[in-house]
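Exercise 7. Given the encoded structure of a 185-residue chain, write a plausible sequence.
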């Protein structure tokens, strides 16, 4: 069974990740979810726990006695790592080599294909530093997905909307079917 780690960060699009986790689990993948502190303001870990059938990782310093893995193992054993939705913050942290929470630390360990599905306000998405960070990730082989144009949760119209969850799920499955742990874009 292939292992997928799903990182969830603090954007309003968090609720769409529930469908992705649900579908991947139904399709026979072992799914482990890591939520940032901010993501937990939007969706409760319990929802992802039920959908994935696994405990959700929420804190770097949780006691590990109920785990059969550590953040290192989770990163190492992943066949694919996806961050959805990916905030401007996590994109910036990864691009800068920052590992200050469970998600940013675990993704640093991963050598598998890494998919980043950004979602944010148009001005944030078009911010030159965010765009530079995206290009930096792409230049290192990260699969940074585009965004959809449309009406955002904040009422603005433009780029930055998360791609439809079905498209993200299919993208993930396409990569896994190619069976290349070090696949580049
Ligand atoms: C209601 C609300 C919605 C937000 N939506 C987004 C978003 O879609 N994308 C984004 O990059 N940040 C968004 N933020 C800001 C992030 O939550 C903030 O930058 C946070 O530090 C991200 O932390 P994380 O990357 O560790 O999850 C939102 C904040 C609030 C209060």
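Solution.
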């Amino acid at each position: 069974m292939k292992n997928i780690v799903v990182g969830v960060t603090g954007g309003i699009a968090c609720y769409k990740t529930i469908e992705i986790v649900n579908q991947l689990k139904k399709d026979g993948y072992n799914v482990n979810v890591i939520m940032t502190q901010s993501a937990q303001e939007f969706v409760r870990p319990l929802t992802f726990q039920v959908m994935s059938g696994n405990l959700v990782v929420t804190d770097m310093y949780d006691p590990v006695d109920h785990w059969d893995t550590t953040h290192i193992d989770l990163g190492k054993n992943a066949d694919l790592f996806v961050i959805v939705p990916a905030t401007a913050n996590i994109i910036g942290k990864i691009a800068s080599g920052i590992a200050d929470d469970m998600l940013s630390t675990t993704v640093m360990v991963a050598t598998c294909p890494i998919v980043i599905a950004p979602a944010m306000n148009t001005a944030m998405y078009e911010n030159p530093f965010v765009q530079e960070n995206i290009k930096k990730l792409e230049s290192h082989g990260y699969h940074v997905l585009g965004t959809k144009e449309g009406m955002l949760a904040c009422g603005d119209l433009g780029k930055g909307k998360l791609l439809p969850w079905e498209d993200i799920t299919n993208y993930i499955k396409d990569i896994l079917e190619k069976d290349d742990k070090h696949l580049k874009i």
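Remark. The CA atoms of residues 80 and 136 lie 20 Å apart. Students should compare their own answers with the one above.
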